[in-house]
């Protein structure tokens, strides 16, 4: 699992940069945080019967990454929740798309960690 996580993190910076229409900077610190999250997150598979990205209730545990297997295509597209805590997959989601979704989840979780570790007022411009 650690080897897979390291491969995902290595691909993360590339995937995030390549997939984004806006300029994204992945610093060494952010990349290290992504790797730490990839290695230490507990991946939990959740039965997606009746679940959609709109009605799914996540566990709000930052130590977990929930994978929701959607029951049917009409339940929604493969995607990552806005906070990176949940990945929604369809049974036919390609390996390449899964890697991209994991990379996006690790990136979002690392950005959230980075935001909470900055002192108050650090985000505002003079």
Automatic annotation (TrEMBL):
Highest taxon of the lineage: Bacteria
Keywords: Signal
Signal sequence interval, chain numbering: 1-21
Keyword Signal attached: yes
Name under which the protein is recorded: Uncharacterized protein
